[in-house]
Amino acid sequence: MNDAQPLLEVRGAGHAYGDRYGCRDVDLDLWPGEVLAVVGESGSGKTTLLGALSQRLSLTEGSIRYQTVDGTVVNLAELSEAAVRRLWRTDWGFVHQNPADGLRMHVSAGGNVGEPLMAVGWRHYGRVRAAAAEWLERVEIPVDRIDDAPVTFSGGMRQRLQIARNLVVSPRLVFMDEPTSGLDVSVQARLLDLIRSLVTELGLAVVIVTHDLGVARLISHRTLVMKDGRVIESGLTDRVLDDPQAAYTQLLVSSILQG
Amino acid sequence: MNQPILAVSGVDKTFTMHLQDGQRLPVVHELAFEVRAGECVALGGASGAGKSSVLKMVYGNYATSRGSITLQGRSGAVDIATAGPRQVLAARRDTMGYVSQFLHCVPRVGALQVVAEPLIERGMPAPEARERAAQLLTRLAIPERLWSLPPATFSGGEQQRVNIARGFITELPLLLLDEPTASLDARNRDVVTELIRGKRAQGTAILGIFHDAEVRGAVADRVVDVELFAAVTEAVA
């Protein structure tokens, strides 16, 4: 891997729903090991941007270039569907706001974590189960729950399981869509702390969409502020939050409840 | 060697308050000073003169409206006023440390780990980093029974000492200190004074705000009075 090259290089990216743009003119670089928060209120275009970056939505304009594991840079729009599917199996993860969207709710916890390994060719049942058990432990789920289905889990446990399912194949880039927003505050803090340490340990690059500036401050290096589909401010997270320049960012920051 | 570690030149800072009809709050104008290796410079001036804002600009936490803030790192110079986020992060990792007035607690992480983290993040093996953290916590009189507990539950003075330990444990060319002895008793204030003098002796450049005149007298070579660079407040119609 070439550290002098960004993992993702986004230029002039936009996605239109019919003739209305969900997001437009987005430029960003994401480097290995970097956590980028995309903040803004609902309707600001942050989820559309996440969809476009993760190839779940097509680009109407602009380009996204991705550095693959062997160092070559590819234009994502030019990849075949099979190549994109391969990226999803080996390189990328997606953590949904609602764990039910990212988990198989009636399959055992061990099965949920083991399945991505089987998809990349693991065949030995004992090893898959051992790896799944190890990951359950890393996300602080008691290993004796390995045969229980997530439908029997609490919200926080489900979300931690979804994270394990995503990280078990050692991806390089993980997209997260409001991963903590459905949870109680105390559960949120624990989950954020877990995400923070796993991201540092594994050197993951992460794009995390959140409406919660506290989440951005706790885990991101850089922050992008969106409004009406455009990026209106970006920079080092603590700079954006402590000395916001744009009128809208000042409004967002001043609206935080002091805790 | 005689090159300054930090060179601030022609720096302006103005806050524009968009929520107050774009009212502009000028803080400093044409600010200029240097800090060399082994030198300790205190920022002076009344409360509200902008001392903390200056420290925060140097750290890249506040944007600089105009001018340059040149940091001489081990692998070259960088202008924090214009540097991109990755360059600022690299400078924070390799060139400058910052001790704020308050500890920003990480939930669920114990004090010893909080102090050792900056070394581990920079590649030191965890046992060695924790050993050094233990020495520093001992020197700052944090009882061993507290080491495994998250500092969120500590008293203000204890939190501040954990914060100081975390800020002083790395060996970086420049150290920024924002009121490091506020909320400390006399004994701990003396320990911190000794720590600062020790850093200076090792060649660390220090820029700090020291409210306590005795501490300032004991550690600082000279004072840069921020009020001399006060920007004239623009008339608001």
Description of the molecule:
The complex is a heterodimer of chains A (259) and B (237). Chain A has helices at residues 46-53, 81-90, 99-102, 109-119, 125-138, 155-167, 185-202, 213-219, 237-242, 247-254, and strands at residues 8-17, 20-30, 35-39, 61-67, 73-75, 92-95, 173-177, 205-210, 222-227, 230-236. Chain A has 259 residues and is α/β, with parallel strands linked by helices. In chain A, helix 4 (109-119) runs parallel beside helix 6 (155-167) and helix 5 crosses helix 6 (155-167). The N and C termini of chain A lie far apart (41 Å). Chain B has 237 residues and is α/β, with parallel strands linked by helices. Helices cover 34% and strands 25% of the residues of chain B. Chain B is built from seven helices and nine strands. Chain B has helices at residues 51-59, 85-94, 111-121, 126-139, 156-168, 186-201, 213-219; strands spanning 6-17, 23-35, 40-44, 66-73, 76-79, 96-99, 174-178, 205-209, 222-225. A five-stranded parallel β-sheet of chain B has the order 6-7-8-3-9, with helices on both faces. Chain B has a four-stranded antiparallel β-sheet with strand order 2-1-4-5, with helices on one face. The relative contact order of chain B is 0.20. The interface between A and B is medium-sized, with 22 and 19 residues.
Summarize the structure.
Chain A has helices spanning 46-53, 81-90, 99-102, 109-119, 125-138, 155-167, 185-202, 213-219, 237-242, 247-254; strands at 8-17, 20-30, 35-39, 61-67, 73-75, 92-95, 173-177, 205-210, 222-227, 230-236. With 259 residues, chain A is of the alpha/beta class.
